[in-house]
Amino acid sequence: MKVIKTTESGIEYLRGLLKEKSQTITRAALFKIPHNSESNDICLKVGRYKKFDFVPETLDCPSPKSELTLDHEEFESLLTFLSDNYKPLFDGVKKYIPIDDEFDPTNLRHIKAIFENPDKEKLLEFILKNNIFSEDLILSLHNQEKVKAIKEFEIMLSSDLPEKSWQNWFASNSWILGTEFVKILDERHIDTSNIADYLMQAYDGFLDIVEIKKPDNSIKFWANSKDHDNYVPSSDLIKAITQATKYIYEVERESNSVKFSEKAGIKTIKPRCSLIFGRSNDWDKEKRESYRILNSNYHNLTIMTYDHVLDRAKRILGCDKDDMIKTDIRHDDLPF
Fold this sequence. Notes:
The protein has helices spanning 72-90, 105-115, 120-129, 135-157, 163-172, 235-253, 258-264, 285-296, 306-316; strands spanning 5-6, 12-20, 24-33, 41-50, 66-70, 181-184, 198-202, 207-212, 273-276, 301-304. It is α+β, with helices and mostly antiparallel strands. The chain has two domains: 5-85, no CATH class; 149-333, no CATH class. The strands form two sheets. Strands 1-2-3-4-5 form a five-stranded antiparallel sheet. The protein has a five-stranded mixed sheet with strand order 6-7-8-9-10. The chain starts with a strand and ends in a 20-residue tail after the last helix.
């Protein structure tokens, strides 16, 4: 366990062993210089000492073989230098552009010019051919885009948006619907009378359905009163369930239709539907149990609230409610 010690003059310090040889030792010490203001300076001392002359309980050594002390500004500059340059040097990179507060605007213009190339296929070929992006960076960029999408989702939940806005958002972020879906199909028409929000290609290659109802405070998930001391679906939820099951029925009726199969582009066998309805952010234990029981009654329909979708998305990204990556998004940033 590291212990922060204090000198007789009141300076707090922490020592660390860098290297030990038969006759000498190399040590580093971080120490804090207090000021009358709230801020304190952190300094670094690195020294090489004769092993048997060194007294570890003190900050100063009267006869070091060599010693260097960096003040607060020098120490911060050293940290920045190491952060910017250690990894490229270790990886054998011959040329690189440090990204810091003094980033050369000329370099930035050159980088922007590359990525603003209108020939996207040629640009992608150039990136792949020259190995410009590492796999870690590509994964990080994908992850940040999804984090931004989740932040948008949370802002939208606090806004009164039309259902069309939600349909557009889910179409642009279909990954949030779950790993069981591969993609959203272009076709939405089941027949002339029934238009689903989304017809999806499932991971097994067959067609499934996703139906959403915009989250509205006036639309309740549970009825206002219990029935025989049980929570029961509201009339709005029952209507949505009825509509979803009707879509399943109509898709099954069209399963042998060559015309429908050609429009959808995939086969239809025993379609399932995911219904996204209402909020559950204020549910208690009894409501959560009732929800579990409700869902168990359907073998081809899954009901989820918007909060269930949000929580699942955060788990997909490996972050929970209290550990979201900070991404600055305002209402003005939303594309609707």
